Amino acid sequence: MSALPRYVPSAAVPSTSLHDAPWRRSSRSTGMNNCVETAPLHRGPSAGLLAVRDSKRTAGPALLFSPSAWERFLNSLQ
């Protein structure tokens, strides 16, 4: 079983890991910043995980998902 998603305060992940990540906004975004953004992390201790954050709080915390946990989460929404 893969790791469950976990809340990670922005101070716990090196700022360059989240700051330099290639963030993508949800295609369901209305342009009013009421959505989420995702970014695959390629460096540091969180490499291989997917970060998810609130688009209104880009400097705020992120949730980190393993690829399989993220896929299960998305499948549960259908």
UniProtKB/TrEMBL annotation:
It comes from the Bacteria. InterPro entries: DUF397. Residues 1-40 are annotated as: Disordered. Residues 21-77 form the DUF397 domain. This is DUF397 domain-containing protein.
